[in-house]
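Entry 14. Ran structure prediction on the chain below.
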Amino acid sequence: VQLVESGGGLVQPGDPLRLSCVASGFTFSDDWMYWVRQAPGKGLEWVSSINPVGTTTEYAPSVKGRFNSFRNNARNVLYLQMNNLLVEDTAVYYCARDASGARRGQGTQVTVSS
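Output, structure tokens:
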């Protein structure tokens, strides 16, 4: 099983950014998928969930209305479109097979700073 995130970087407040996660080693289209994040000095925080067919999504209150999770099951890719980024969105972002983040990838760093 492998989850490989990409797309992170340094952006300014208000900028957009899209993260990707390529999955392999399991039947991606059968699973709910999740994004979690870890800010400096803090624990893992659930960000979003998406059902296997991509028709149901859930978001943490802190990102609802700004972030959008979607997936391409034909390519085994999970995405997180992040809009209107805030300084407090700075974190390492992980895709995961569970909401706690226990089964997550290596992460991609997102830094929001002016």
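The chain has a mean pLDDT of 97. Will compare against last week's run tomorrow.
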